[in-house]
Amino acid sequence: MQPQAAHKMRTLILASSSSYRKALLERLRIPFDCRAPHINEEAHPGEGAIELACRLATEKAAALRSTCPDALIIGSDQVAECSGRLLGKPGNIEAAEEQLSYCSGKRVNFHTGISLLDTGSGKQLTHCETYSVHFRHLTANQISRYVSIEKPLDCAGSFKAEGFGIALFEKMEGSDPNSLIGLPLIRLVTMLAEFGISPLD
Fold it and tell me: Which residues have CB under 8 Å from 57's CB, separation 6+?
């Protein structure tokens, strides 16, 4: 009897230049490469937060399709919204303080789209994971102190939940806290299983 050939490990690509998503995916201990997709991330007229998150995640994965044959590509994008207002990355201290002032005492929903594309078969799975945080009522001095200490200028919503930003919240709601940082690992493990990959095997 001939021995069975070893199962070929699929190439896994994270379509992102985010250090946060890279660190999250490393937790699964599956070999992967990172490549930056280049897409237009502006919202379409009338596009809702969930639709935008899913579309961008799908497009990020698809953007690497031609250069990554026979690979599994992970695309992910996060859209934060509070009372109907989309919250992007602030970019500077003044914008971060304004965002946090707007969110004070309110619930902020973080919609994280995740898409897994098999470039060999063309099969693509896409899902949106929503995680909510309830902000404390914050004073201007508290907001200024937080921003000066953590400088969350590259984070949607102007905070880092995995750091000092936890002090801003009264409570958090959702099935996967990793989605708040940018990559819903629980959902990703489920999606990878559909392609025969498990981090536990």
Answer: 75, 76, 77, 113, 114, 115, 126
Domains of the chain and CATH, by start: 11-193 (3.90.950.10)
Q: Which two tokens stand for residue 46?
A: 């009338």
Q: Is 40 helix (H, G, I), strand (E, B) or coil?
A: coil
Euclidean distance between CA atoms 165 and 146, whole angstroms: 8
DSSP assigned state of 119? T
The predicted-structure confidence for 119-143, as pLDDT tens digits, reads as follows 999 999 999 999 999 999 999 999 9
What is the per-residue pLDDT across 42-68, written as a single tens digit (0 to 9) for each? Answer: 889 989 999 999 999 999 999 999 999
Element (H, E) at 130: strand 124-135
At 84 the pLDDT is 87
77 in active site: yes
Active-site pick, 33, 70, 77, 154: 77
Q: Are 191 and 61 in contact (CB under 8 A)?
A: no
- What local confidence, expressed as pLDDT, does residue 146 receive? 97
Of the CA atoms within 13 Å of residue 142, those in its CB half-sphere come to 14
Q: Do residues 28 and 199 lie in contact, with contact meaning Cβ atoms separated by under 8 Å?
A: yes
